[in-house]
Amino acid sequence: MKFGKWALVLVLVLVGPASAWAQGGGGGPCDAPPPIPPPDTLPEGFGVNVFADGIPWATSLCWDNRGRAFVGESFFFVPAPDQRVWVLQDTDGDGVADVQNIFGESFGQVLGLAALPRAPRGRIISEARKRKTSVANLMRIGALSEFPVDIFVNHTLTGFTVQDEFLGILSRLRDLNGDGDALDPGEREDILTGLPAGGDHNNDNIAIGPDALLYFGLGIRTNWGGVDKPDGNLAVGECIITETCINGAILRVRPDGSHLEVVARGLRNAFGVGFTSNGVLLVTDNGPDIRNCHPVACAPDELNVIHPITAWPANLAPGGGKTPCGALDKAPNYGAPDFAGTPPPGTGTIGPIHNFPPSVSADGFDINLTDTWCGFEGDLFVAEFGNFGNFEAFTQGVRIERLELITNRRGVPTSAVRHAFGGQTLSFGHPVDAKFGPDDALYVTIFSGFGFEPPGRVIRIFPIDSDNDGTPDICE
Predict the structure, then answer these.
(1) What is the gyration radius of the CA atoms in the chain, in angstroms?
(2) Per-residue pLDDT for 64 more than 80?
(3) In this predicted model, what pLDDT tens digit does every residue of 226-267 receive, in sequence order?
(4) Among 104, 137, 361, 396, which residue's beta carbon has the most beta carbons within 10 A?
(5) Domains of the chain, earliest start first
C-alpha cells in the first residue's frame, strides 16, 4: 500500500519540484492513465455482496483449511499497538459471514497474514506437489484439515516518533485450547522481532512457499532511498535515516522465526506476494511518489517474477539493528532505488514483467485456480488501493484489476495483459487484498479511515448461477 507512518505528509506538503520520471521509467510527460471504469461495474455473469461489515481499516486476508477467513486491521495514525485480527466464517453457505470474532489483538499495523497447517514440513510439501498447487490453495480447498493451523501476522509498532526504528514484528498465533481465538496466555509468540520497519513502509504481506517457508516483503523506509541524519530528528518533508541492507527486499524465514534470509533486493515496497501452482514467486511493488525527499513523478507500480529462488543469510542484531551487507549484494537486484519500471539495458538489474500505471498502489492479489471462473483460468486479480494525490480525489487505481499472465514453456510468467475487472471496487471503497475463498468467490478487503465511507468490510465477488444448476452462467 502507498502509505506508512509518514502518510500525513501527503496532506500537509508536496515537496517539489519533482523529477519528470523515475530513472529508467521513461523520458517525457506522463502518459495519460487509463480511465477508471464506471462505479458498480463487473463483467457480465458476476455478482457481488458484502461478506462482512464493520471491520475498520481492513487490510490483509488469508484462508485456513477449515473455511475460515482471517482479516487484519491497519490504521497508521494510531501509534499504540491496538490493531486486531478478525476471524470470519460463513457456516450456512449464504455468502455472508455469520461468525465474526476477534482472533488476536494488541498488534501494530497489520499488513500481512498467512495460514500454515501444523503438520510436518515434508507432509505439506508433498501434498502441494501431489496436487500440483500452492500451499495457499491447499488451505482454500480444505486440504490437510486434520491438522490445526498457525496464523502468522506481520505488523509494525509504528507511530509519529523519531526514526531509526526496528519495530517490525512477525507473530505466530495458535488456538491451543480450541475456543476459536488466540487471546489466551501462551497462544501468541513474536517469533521475529527487530525488523527495520517504520517510516514510509513496513513488513508486508506473507506467502507460504512450496518449501513451506514464509516469504514477505520489507519496504524501504523512505519514498525513494534514504540519507543519513545523525541526530535522528525528522522534519516534515525530510528523509528517514539510512536504509539497512534488508530494506527493499523479499525475506524468507522458517515458521519458528529462525534462518532469516534475503531472496531478492531492489524492491521499494513489495506489498503483494504469492506463488503460482508451479512454485514461481510473484511480487507487486509500489513505485515512488511525488512526495517526501526524492520526489518522483510518473513512476509505475510493478509486477515482478522471482525465479528461481536462491537465498542469503540476513541475521538481525539482538533487539534490532543494521545487518551487514556482505553477500547480500549477490541477491537478485530489481532496481530500486536506482530504477523504477523497466531499467535500461546493461544495468545489472531485473525489470518487471508488467508495469502498472503510476500510483495505482497495486497491492494484494491472488491467482484464479478455481473451476468456476471459466475464461479466467490462471489470471491474476490485483487489488489497487489508489493513489494519495489528495485524500478526496483518487485519480488512479481504486479497483480490481485482472492480469492475463503470459508464460514460457516452463510455466514461468514473462509478461501480462491488463484488463480492468471491477470499477472503483463497485463503490464499496478502497481495496487492499484479494483472495479466492473455498466457495470459489473472490474476497476483497476494503479499507476505511480518513473519513472514508462506508466503513471497512470484506466484499465477495462471485460467478452467477442464474438457473441454480450448479454451473455458473459463464461456464455454460
Answers:
(1) 21
(2) yes
(3) 554 444 444 444 555 556 788 899 999 999 999 999 999 999
(4) 361
(5) 9-475 (2.120.10.30)
Q: How far apart are CA 356 and CA 358, in angstroms?
A: 6
Rounded CA-CA distance 348/15 in Å is: 31
The dihedral formed by the CA atoms of 34, 27, 335 and 243, expressed in degrees to the nearest 10:
-100
Cα 60 versus chain centre, distance: 7
pLDDT in tens, 102-128: 999 999 889 999 999 999 999 999 999
Q: Of 57, 68, 149, 3, which Cα lies nearest the Cα of 443?
A: 68
Which of the two residues, 197 and 175, has the higher pLDDT score? 175
Q: What is the DSSP string of 72-135?
A: EE--TT--SS-EEEEEEE-SSSSSS-SEEEEEEEEESEEEEEEEEESS-HHHHHHHHHHHTS-H
Residues 6+ apart with CB under 8 A from 147: 65, 117, 118, 119
End-to-end Cα distance, the chain:
38
Confidence of residue 366 (pLDDT cuts 50, 70, 90): very high
What's at 455, amino acid-wise? P
Beta strands (DSSP E) in 260-370 are 261-265, 270-275, 281-285, 300-306, 312-313, 354-358, 362-367
Measure Cα distances from 359 to 335, 381, 388, 424 in Å.
18, 17, 8, 15
| H and E: helices and strands count for the chain | 3, 25
What pLDDT does residue 359 have? 83
Cell of 395: 485519480
Q: Does 255 sit behind a cis peptide bond, omega within 30 degrees of 0 on the bond before it?
A: no
C-alpha 297 chain-centroid distance: 23
Distances (CA, A) of 208 to 124, 283, 366, 383: 10, 13, 13, 19
Q: What is the DSSP letter of 328?
A: G
State the Cα–Cα distance between residues 412 and 371, nearest whole angstrom: 21
What is the bridge-based pairing of β-strands 249-253 and 214-218?
Answer: antiparallel
Taking residues 280-284, report their average pLDDT. Answer: 98
Which amino acid appears at position 335 of this protein? G
| Interatomic CA distance for residues 22 and 355, integer angstroms | 13
Residue 318 has pLDDT above 60, yes or no: no
Report yes or no: 456 and 83 within 8 Å, Cβ to Cβ: no
| C-alpha cell read off for 313 | 543469510
